[in-house]
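User: tokens in, sequence out, please.
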């Protein structure tokens, strides 16, 4: 069974400034939330670390650019742990705090240089990308999906795109990633979803409110 060109069921990972959410998608409007962030969203963590490193805003593209001359193995970060080994949730507060402590220690020693900044940016980006991809493929194995889909603003991150494609190919799971031009806010996406609901006869009255960070599929 297929929805568009993507075979069902598939796994959808939404990574943005407000969301880090993992969904099992069985059809249009038929989805289940498998995991979400317990603190900062991935994009929010990028913004905060970029601010710490004085790289500018938005943090995603700034970290991406700085990482190009950095060593992604310069700093190691502990992977977040949860009470349940089967958890598919996310957490980025620990890695964000670790970046702060590393930067504070370097600043105290007068060791904050352009290369230090590039190395920390690259190491942070690598750790986040690895965590996201590990979680996605863990969920793919558990739920026996036929494909993986990446979406949201952070989906524009070059390293995340490369790593997901590489790991998905190794796992023999088809991977769908939108072009960068469609990773950021896009009114056409919202209009399309609205049109599909309208075609199905589903309407909302004028009392409907917009909640930007509300999860769906709960």
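Assistant: Sequence out:
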């Amino acid at each position: 069974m297929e929805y568009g060109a993507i075979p069902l069921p598939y796994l959808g990972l939404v990574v943005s400034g407000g969301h880090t959410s993992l969904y099992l998608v069985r059809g249009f409007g038929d989805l289940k939330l498998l995991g979400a962030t317990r603190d900062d969203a991935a994009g929010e963590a990028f913004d905060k670390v970029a601010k710490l490193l004085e790289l500018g805003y938005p943090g995603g593209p700034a970290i991406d650019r700085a990482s190009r001359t950095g060593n992604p193995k310069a700093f190691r970060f502990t992977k977040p742990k949860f009470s349940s080994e089967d958890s598919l949730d996310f957490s980025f507060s620990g890695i964000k705090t670790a970046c702060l402590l590393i930067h504070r220690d370097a600043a105290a020693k007068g060791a904050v240089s352009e290369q230090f900044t590039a190395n920390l940016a690259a190491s942070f980006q690598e750790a986040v990308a690895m965590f996201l991809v590990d979680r996605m493929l863990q969920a793919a194995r558990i739920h026996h999906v036929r494909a993986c889909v990446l979406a949201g603003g952070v989906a524009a991150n070059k390293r995340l795109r490369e790593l997901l494609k590489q790991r998905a190919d190794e796992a023999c799971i088809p991977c769908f990633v939108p072009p960068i031009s469609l990773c950021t806010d896009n009114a056409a996406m919202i209009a399309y979803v609205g049109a599909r609901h309208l075609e199905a006869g589903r309407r909302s009255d004028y009392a409907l409110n917009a909640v930007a960070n509300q999860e769906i599929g709960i």
